[in-house]
Amino acid sequence: MAEIRATNMAGKFGKMIPVRIRPGTDVMEGLKKACEDNGVKYGGILFGIGSIRQLCYQVLVPKKESIWGAGYTDPATIPGPIEIVGISGVIFQSEEGETLLHIHGTFSDQKGKCFGGHLVMGQNPVLATTDAIIAELTDAKMIRRMDPELGMGIFNPEP
User: CATH no. for residue 92?
Assistant: First the structure.
């Protein structure tokens, strides 16, 4: 059996924050502002649905030059209208105390073709509305630190 390698830390749910992001506001920027307005440093975007004017996302592909053999593509943009079928992600802090989000989602275009991947900050303006639920994590921290094994910054659960 392969070695199981995982880092975890027990925490508790704090605040639950329903969010409505209005037309023209970027999805990730709206969620980040809701976190900051409500003092949420750590937690998750439990789910979200809505519509956007365009989709800008990245997907994971093989990359031989990467330490771990994969990496994100350059951002791809798909003109809207685009339906947000579902988004979710994590809320954490940089070592300098900046609120960071890592959000993935599933989206469909006007013909029902589906796309999925990692949302790009500042490039996904809301069309009509985007509705989401933020869940705060307390009694545990999630800090983005450089992982030498992977050669990139990732969040780490800490007490």
Answer: 3.30.1330.80
Query: Counting beta carbons within 10 angstroms of the beta carbon of residue 98, is it exposed (0 to 12), middle (13 to 18) or buried (19 or more)?
Result: exposed
C-alpha–C-alpha distance, residues 58 and 125, integer Å: 16
β-partners of residue 116 are 106
Q: Which residues contact 62 (CB under 8 A, 6 or more apart)?
A: 69, 70
- Rounded-to-integer distance, Cα 128 and Cα 154, Å: 33
Distance of alpha carbon 33 from alpha carbon 27, whole angstroms: 10
**Which tokens belong to 143?**
């800090």
Quote the number of domains for the chain.
Answer: 1
**pLDDT tens-place values along the chain, 159 residues long:** 889 988 888 999 999 999 999 999 999 999 999 999 999 999 999 999 999 999 999 999 998 888 888 888 999 999 999 999 999 999 999 999 999 999 999 999 999 999 999 999 999 999 999 999 999 999 999 999 998 887 788 888 988
Q: Are 127 and 21 a contacting pair, CB within 8 Å? A: no
Closest CA to 69 of 80, 78, 60, 82: 60
